[in-house]
Structures are given as structure tokens and as C-alpha cells.
Design goal:
Chain lengths: 124, 107
């Protein structure tokens, strides 16, 4: 059974940093791209970042480019999201999700398993 | 810029009803559309991918159709567990955009 468990969410001041982690189990982790999706309160989801299965390719939405960095450690079945220069508008639940097909960033489009999310609040 | 719209933004329906939700893109995205269901406090759940393929384990009362820019999610014989918010999401282009959502509640 696929299981994704996020951690690292917290209350942080504007301009601060956080690192989110997502530990995966139940599938061949290195064969799939992984995604971070966030959802602000009362809003629709927003696709934030994608990391490929094994070659380190990444994608970041324009709203976070230059501030967020996605990475993974296949030896630990873990994907990370390093978030710097946080803003109030980054406040959201951050979900880790498994891509349904393939390990490449370019083809990553469908998320078939999601974690329960971790809450990030950016406020002074 | 790529934009996704959904209509209606909300609807009220009764158990047993047929419900239709529409998703429109302002660019051609072929059939690269997913539909997700989300209940309060839960993560989105994949229902349909490639516009019309039912995800494993999803009841057959859910049906997706459409191509290019216009897509539809239909729920026949609405069940109590179907009251939720539904999002379309495109993956024909970057960024991978979600629609604004359609909330289905009980009449």
C-alpha cells in the first residue's frame, strides 16, 4: 500500500525558511517523479514543484521560483521542499504526491497518491 | 497565459440526481485533463485521468469526456459520499493548473 507522510510544517515569520519532508513507502520510489502541491485555505490546489525520479531534474512554479527548491534522496525514500524567503501568500497546506506515470518532470501530470499534508503558516 | 475555468462554481443536488460539471481551457490541451474529488480536511483524490479513464477503484457512476479545450465530469445516481468539491487539472502545458473547483452540496 502506498503511503506518503509529510512533516516540517510550522509557523514562520515572513522572510524565514522551512524544509518540508515527505517519506514514501509501498512503491518503487526512484521510478516515479514526485510533486508538491499546496492549497491555501478556501482556495483550489496549486502545483508547486516537481522532481524527477532519478536524474535530479526539477520544475518550480513561477510563484516560488528562486525561493523554493525541491530535491529527493532515493536512499531514504524521501522528497524535500526547501522554502526560503517565505511570504504570507505561501501560507497553505502542502501536500506531497506521487506521479501516476513515469519519472520525468516533463511528463509528470497526474497525481495518484497524496499525503495528508503539512500546514505552513507565514505570519509575524 | 493558460487559464482554466469551471462551471458552475457550486450546485445543490439530491441523492440519485445526475450532475454535470464543465471545465474549459483557453488553450488546446488535447485530452490531458484530470478530475479530482476533495472532501473537507482531506487531500484531493484522483477520479479520472486522460479526460475519460476511470482511476482504479472509482465507481462507474463517474464519467469524464471531452477534448481540446472543453471537458465534462458527469456523476450519475449521485450518492451521499459524492458531496464534495471537484477540481479539473490540466497537464497539457506548464504550469499544471487546477480549475477553481465546483462544490456539490445537498439540496
Amino acid at each position: 500500500e502506498v503511503h506518503l507522510l509529510e512533516s516540517g510544517g510550522d509557523l514562520v515569520q515572513p522572510g524565514g525558511s522551512l524544509r518540508l519532508s515527505c517519506v514514501a513507502s509501498g512503491f518503487d520510489f526512484s521510478r516515479y517523479a514526485m510533486v508538491w502541491v499546496r492549497q491555501a485555505s478556501g482556495k483550489g490546489p496549486e502545483w508547486v514543484s516537481t522532481v524527477s525520479g532519478s536524474n535530479g531534474s526539477t520544475y518550480h512554479a513561477d510563484s516560488v521560483k528562486g525561493r523554493f527548491t525541491v530535491s529527493r534522496d532515493n536512499s531514504k525514500n524521501t522528497v524535500y521542499l526547501q522554502m526560503n524567503s517565505l511570504r504570507a501568500e505561501d501560507s497553505a497546506i502542502y501536500y506531497c504526491a506521487k506521479v501516476k506515470r513515469g519519472f520525468g518532470v516533463a511528463v509528470a501530470g497526474t497525481c495518484d497518491y497524496w499525503g495528508r499534508g503539512t500546514l505552513v503558516t507565514v505570519s509575524s | 497565459d493558460l487559464q482554466m475555468t469551471q462551471s458552475p462554481s457550486s450546485l445543490s443536488a439530491s441523492v440519485g440526481d445526475r450532475v454535470t460539471i464543465t471545465c474549459q481551457a483557453n488553450q488546446v490541451i488535447n485530452n490531458f485533463i484530470n478530475w479530482y474529488q476533495q472532501k473537507p480536511g482531506k487531500a484531493p483524490k484522483l477520479l479520472i485521468y486522460d479526460a475519460s479513464i476511470l482511476e482504479t477503484g472509482v465507481p462507474s457512476r463517474f464519467n469524464g469526456s471531452g477534448s481540446d479545450t472543453h471537458f465534462t465530469l458527469t456523476i450519475t445516481n449521485l450518492q451521499p459520499e459524492d458531496f464534495a468539491t471537484y477540481y479539473c487539472q490540466q497537464y497539457g502545458n506548464l504550469p499544471r493548473l487546477f480549475g477553481p473547483g465546483t462544490k456539490v452540496d445537498i439540496k
